Amino acid sequence: MIQPVGRRPGFRHTSLSRRSPASGLTAESKLALDRTAKFRQAAALRNA
Known about the structure:
- It is a single chain.
- With 48 residues, the chain is mainly α.
- The protein contains two helices and no strands.
- It starts with 10 loop residues before the first helix and ends with a helix.
């Protein structure tokens, strides 16, 4: 999978939630959306 340099899964989420606890829920939902999108992309690549 292609990933930007220095970006590890969960790293952005933890720093974000620590910086602003109020937006922790949105950060979590965004992470879940990113994860589902990645899974869908991987499945599409595998089936192609």
